[in-house]
Amino acid sequence: MREIFIVGLGRMGAGIGRRLLRSGFTVFGYDKDRENSEKAKNDGIKVFYNLSHIKEVFTQEKRIIWIMVPASVVDAVIDEIEKFLSPGDIVIDGGNSYFRDSMARYRRLADKGIGFLDVGVSGGVWGEKEGYCMMIGGNKEDFEYVEPIFKALATKGTGYGYLGKAGAGHFVKMVHNGIEYAMMEAIAEGFELMKESEFNLDLKEVARIYNTGSVIRSWLMELVEKAFEDFGDLKDVEGYVEDTGEGRWTVIEAINRAVPLPNIADSLFMRFRSRQKDSFRDKLLAALRFEFGGHGVRKKDG
User: Fold this and answer.
1) What residues act catalytically?
2) How far is CA 253 from CA 4, 93, 157, 174, 247, in A?
3) Which of 150, 155, 238, 246 is buried most deeply by CB count within 10 Å?
């Protein structure tokens, strides 16, 4: 098993393809974005401009299709490709899909004899060089067939694991991202306090020190140091923090199971807060302070 077809050749999909190429795999690919396709083609990926080629390009017994697209379009991609697949073929969803959607996709494809693995992938754009961390759910026999791919992609060849039935991989990746939200929020809060201190600290130097043997040294802290290298004092960076769904799903699952996750929940809500330019809530708070205590209210110019 040395052939794979990747649907979605953006930063992550193309990076996965290039890493597999270096490990001796034949990598086919498709992306609806022509620019992504041309870049991947220049990298050595055998690019096609029609998904129907999935049916004919493989020489091995089972077709392996790796989907690397946003969670919102995974079902549309499956709709397109399943007519070109046969019983025994295996579909891998390596994006950040909601685990319950992955469970449904597994059942849908199983009815046609097609395997489905949900694979949570961590490592970002650095994974192409350093290797990826992969959390995998689905049928164990399908996992074992595809394992050479995971081994080639993984950090040190061991940064992957089979976690159980369909949905398990994306569930563990969801929680991973929830934890990531909370860790990033804690780092940002600590550095904000240092920025507002009386000591005029070199925050890049602080990050370097933290990374040299401290209890909180980590890859995220290394990226803090790099962020100050790339963006200086951050004065030109807008304080708008996006979320891609996993933090929300983590909190929703915690509510459904009555599991307290105060730090993860708060980190999600702080991301929402970052997007508010003129909060109605804060206006009401200011007005309430005036009403009960006569505190001053700042009014907009004009």
Assistant:
1) 173, 180
2) 34, 21, 32, 10, 10
3) 246
pLDDT digits (tens, 9 = 90+) for 158-170: 999 999 999 999 9
Helix axes 219-231, 203-210, angle to 10 degrees: 160
On the CB side of 84, CA atoms within 13 Å amount to 19
Please state, in angstroms and rounded to a whole number, the distance separating the CA atoms of residues 184 and 190.
Answer: 10
Secondary structure, 3-state, 4-55: EEEECCCHHHHHHHHHHHHCCCEEEEECCCHHHHHHHHHCCCEECCCHHHHH
Distance CA 245, CA 77 (A): 19
What are the backbone angles phi and psi of residue 120, rounded to the nearest 5°?
-80, 125
Positions of the chain with pLDDT lower than 50, given as ranges? none
pLDDT for res 302 = 57
